[in-house]
């Protein structure tokens, strides 16, 4: 069977963005542990680590992968060192990403592994992303527990920030492939996890869902201040996120932040009215940044429509006009290989300006958990085959 494992495919992944800039931005003597569901059988693993948005070198003292007993415990007997040019420790320079050595580690589709990293010295925690969903939970512990079966419960807790580790590849069968889900906070939340669960439950075991999403990001602009949480890079600076082993398609649901954030410098100095795009500006950005880059990488491109915003704190009718114009372009353009109409999946049938009953998280921008499940169900089976 191992002879048929000849293709590298990403089985898990997230974006790397600018993490929440708090008063305390450093950690020391800390272990990070991330459980990852493996959707393909394979014979080897390799790991991508990123300090893309860091401004200082980051040193991983040691890192291990092991079979998971549950979400935070491992089978110590299966521990395998993750190495870098044969070395256990590695320093990631600011603004760079690295790839580990290939390690022999047999995995079976459906099981989970844990990746554990220990950082002995002061470490700048600038390169990470916050994600949510049933498959997206990490753990940290004070002290060195990289090889430990269980992290001391008095010194550890769960969290949803994923630092440094951003992709895991498996050497697997030729038939397996990855779908990239690209976007902002809405994609950083639950629906890609629900899509991954749906694919598995419906028997589509040759596809991995790789999430590339960060809160607050826009197609055309970016913020460079510490006022906002995880407002990462603009579209043209994120196209490296599409470099995913074994991916053949990217599904892009992005652009709502371009519409809702400009409020004028008299209200917020970092959000001038000059940042407000037209629907045509957004369509041109989608075409010239996303479609162009994806096609150059050999990917099919699907577009996702933007969700209702009525009632959001900066809502105004002119913003909905932009959103509707952009959605009309997504639905009608011949440049895309397909469309997922997330807007129609979650909006109220009688009043399309708003979310359907029970589908609003409460802020009138982000969907509820039920709505995220509806978004996952709205993805055509064609994309999972």
Question: Please, could you describe this protein's structure?
Answer:
The protein has 385 residues and is an alpha+beta fold. It is built from 7 helices and 23 strands. It has helices at residues 185-188, 191-201, 256-260, 279-296, 317-332, 342-346, 369-378, and strands at 7-13, 17-18, 26-27, 30-37, 42-50, 58-60, 62-67, 80-81, 90-92, 97-99, 103-107, 112-119, 123-124, 127-130, 138-142, 156-159, 161-163, 165-172, 177-183, 207-213, 247-253, 300-304, 338-340. The protein has a 6-stranded antiparallel β-sheet with strand order 8-7-12-4-15-16, with no helix packed on it. Strands 1, 5, 10, 11 and 18 form a 5-stranded antiparallel β-sheet that branches. Strands 20-19-21-22-23 form a 5-stranded parallel β-sheet, with helices on both faces. Strand 22 (300-304), helix 5 (317-332) and strand 23 form a beta-alpha-beta unit. Helix 2 crosses helix 7 and helix 4 runs parallel beside helix 5 (317-332). The longest helix has 18 residues, at 279-296.
Question: In brief, what are we looking at here?
Answer:
With 385 residues, this protein is of the alpha+beta class.
The residue-averaged pLDDT reads 95
Low-confidence stretches: none
Strand content: 25-35%
Based on DSSP secondary structure assignment, what is the total number of beta strands? 23
Could you say which overall geometry the principal axes of the C-alpha atoms support?
globular
Give a quick account of the main beta sheet: strands, pairing sense, barrel closure.
Answer: 6 strands, antiparallel
Spatial ordering of strands, largest sheet: 8-7-12-4-15-16
Order of H and E elements: EEEEEEEEEEEEEEEEEEEHHEEHHEHEHH
Number of contiguous helices: 7
């Amino acid at each position: 069977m191992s002879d048929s494992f000849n293709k590298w495919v990403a089985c898990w992944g997230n974006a790397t963005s600018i993490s929440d800039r708090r008063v305390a931005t450093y950690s020391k003597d800390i272990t990070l542990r991330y459980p990852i569901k493996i959707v393909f059988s394979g014979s080897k693993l390799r790991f991508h680590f990123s300090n893309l948005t860091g401004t200082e070198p980051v040193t991983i003292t040691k890192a291990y992968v092991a079979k998971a007993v549950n979400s935070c415990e491992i089978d110590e007997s299966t521990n395998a060192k993750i190495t870098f040019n044969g070395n256990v420790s590695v320093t990631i320079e600011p603004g760079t990403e690295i790839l580990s050595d290939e390690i022999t580690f047999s995995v079976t589709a459906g099981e989970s592994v844990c990746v554990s990293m220990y950082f002995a010295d002061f470490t700048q925690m600038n390169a990470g992303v916050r994600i949510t969903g049933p498959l997206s939970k990490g753990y940290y512990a004070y002290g060195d527990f990289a090889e430990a079966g269980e992290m001391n419960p008095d010194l550890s807790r769960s969290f949803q920030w994923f630092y440094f580790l951003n992709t895991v590849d498996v050497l697997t069968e030729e038939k397996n492939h990855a779908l990239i889900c690209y976007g902002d906070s809405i994609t950083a939340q639950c629906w890609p996890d629900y899509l991954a669960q749906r694919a598995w439950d419906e028997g589509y075991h040759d596809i991995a869902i790789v999430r590339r999403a960060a809160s607050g990001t826009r197609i055309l602009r970016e913020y460079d201040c510490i006022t906002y949480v995880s407002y990462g890079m603009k579209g043209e600076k994120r196209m490296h996120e599409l470099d995913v082993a074994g991916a053949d398609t990217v599904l892009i649901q992005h652009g709502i932040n371009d519409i809702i954030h400009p409020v004028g410098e008299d209200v917020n100095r970092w959000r001038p009215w000059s940042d407000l795009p037209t629907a045509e500006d957004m369509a041109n950005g989608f075409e010239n940044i996303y479609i162009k880059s994806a096609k150059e990488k050999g990917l099919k491109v699907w577009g996702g429509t933007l969700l209702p915003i009525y009632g959001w704190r900066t809502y105004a009718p002119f913003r909905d006009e932009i959103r509707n114009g952009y959605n009309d372009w997504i639905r009608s353009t011949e440049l895309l290989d397909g469309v997922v109409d997330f807007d129609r999946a979650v909006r109220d049938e009688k009043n399309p300006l708003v979310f359907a009953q029970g589908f609003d998280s409460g802020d009138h921008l982000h969907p509820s958990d039920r709505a995220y499940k509806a978004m996952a169900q709205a993805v055509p089976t064609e994309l999972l085959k």
